[in-house]
Every structure is written in structure tokens, then in C-alpha cells.
Amino acid sequence: MSTPMGTKRAMASVQKRIDNQTQIYPPLDYSFHNAQQLEDAVVEPRAPQNGPKLVKQGDRYNSYGINLNHNTLNGPLETLPDFLRTILVNPNALSTLDLSFNVFTEIPINMLSDMTEVQKLAPLKQLKYLTLHGNPIEITVPYLRSYILALLPGLRSLNCTPVTKGDRKISEVWEGMNKPLLPNYTNKKPIE
């Protein structure tokens, strides 16, 4: 029979092993580089002042997030998977992507007016945080939050607002009623 103190020690030991195996990598910060195309952003990312340091393997980085905000990025996002493979050791592990405050006509404050551009993000299975503030779709697409959560069910935060259990429930109901609006590949195929 284990004692409460023995159980506490065992749990602390397990937690320590988990903590020692979990790598924390900072997001790659390519913000404010005046990049016009994704490929232009591939310069040395800004090093974080505090916290974990950038970890590079060969010419690619270990990271779960990319900040591309406040550039002049434009054009289609078809090159996003290639861009991610160019800079990330494990592009399928991407959980945070900040594309806000660029000039995309096809994705964030951008001029995104067509959900087909958002649908291109569906293969990013690990995407946890997405910000699409200031786009026309906020006005033109009814039930936008439910639509995006059905498309990207792994999101934890949308437009800087945490995704709640209620949001998920509403999204599930919305998805059941609007299945034809979602692409067949929704969140199934990882980037290769």
C-alpha cells in the first residue's frame, strides 16, 4: 500500500521526467522585415531577449510558432507548405502562425474575403492559435468562428480569444448542418 508521501514523490519523479523530455522552442520572429513574399522573410529570425534560445539543426529551426506579422506580405498562400519545410525541422508541429497586419488579398489585417484561402490552412493539424482580425470575412461569412473551428478543430485560440467548450459544441452542431461547405480534406492530411 502506498503512502500519500510516496505517491507525491512518485508523481514528482514522473513530472520531472516529462519536464526534462519536453523541449520548449521560441517562435521564429520574422515580423517587421518588410518582406513582400514568404520567401523574402527567410532571413535570420530575431533572437528572443529572454526565455529559450533558438535551436537550429542544419539550416532549419526547431520551433512550434512563426511570427510573420507587420510585413508587406501579399499573394497566394500556396507556397506556405514549401516555406514551412524550408525553415522548420518539423513543419507538422507548427501550432502558432501569426500572419496579421500584412497586405494579403488572400489571408490577416489583410483583405481576406474568401473562405477558400482559410481552407488552405486545414492541413496544419497542429495549428493551435490563429489570428484573422480585420478581414472582410469577419463581416461577410456568417458563423465565421464555428466555420473555422469546424475546419481547424485543434485551435485553442481564434482571434486572440480562447476556444471554449461551448464554442466547440456550437461548431460541432454547425458542422453537422453545413458539412457540404467544408472541404473533403479538412484537417486530415499533414504537410509532407
From TrEMBL:
It is found in: Cytoplasm. It comes from the Eukaryota. Keywords: Cytoplasm, Leucine-rich repeat, Repeat. SUPFAM superfamilies: L domain-like. GO terms for cellular component: cytoplasm. InterPro entries: Leu-rich_rpt, LRR_dom_sf. Gene3D superfamilies: Ribonuclease Inhibitor. Pfam families: LRR_1. This is Leucine-rich repeat-containing protein 51. It comes from Adineta steineri. The lineage of its organism: Eukaryota, Metazoa, Spiralia, Gnathifera, Rotifera.
